[in-house]
Structure formats: C-alpha cells, structure tokens
Amino acid sequence: MARALEQHGVDFKQVDASVHQLKGSSSRCLRCLQQVTHEYSLLKNKLQNLFRLEQQIVAAGGSIPGVE
Predict the structure, then answer these.
(1) 9, 18, 25, 59: which has the highest count of C-beta atoms within 10 A?
(2) Collapsing DSSP states into helix, strand and coil, what is residue 8?
(3) Could you read off the pLDDT of 15-64 as tens digits, one per residue?
(4) Residue 68 domain flag
(5) What phi and psi, each to the nearest 5 degrees, are found at residue 9?
(6) What are the transmembrane regions (predicted)?
(7) Does the model's pTM come out above 0.70?
(8) What's the rounded Cα separation, in Å, for the pair 46 and 32?
(9) C-alpha span between 25 and 27 (Å, rounded)
(10) How many domains, the chain?
C-alpha cells in the first residue's frame, strides 16, 4: 500500500485492494487474539486448581514430587 501511494500516478484501485486486504488480516488477528485469551483463561484456571490441590496435599501431610 505504501509503495502504491508513493507512485507518481497513484493507482487508487490498488490502494483500495491493499486496504481491504489489511482489514481482512486485522480481523483474523482479532479472532486469534480472542482465541489466545480464551486459552489463557482456561489454562490459568486449571493451574490455579492444580496449585490449590497441591496446597491441600501438603497441608494434609503429603508431599509433591519435584520436577527434575
């Protein structure tokens, strides 16, 4: 799009096509961001549950094996 705008005779059809392509790409980025946000939320909840269970195990006198 930048190259098309720098030309002496600007091809506005090319600029318009580039704008539409950029808009479509942005839409996909938003969907990807929403997906990542959702996945992060799920993972965060699962890890919080795991840590809570580990704390309960330790509080009951058990132990958690370490990661090597």
Answers:
(1) 18
(2) coil
(3) 888 888 888 778 788 888 899 999 999 999 999 999 999 999 999 999 98
(4) no
(5) -105, 95
(6) none
(7) no
(8) 21
(9) 5
(10) 1
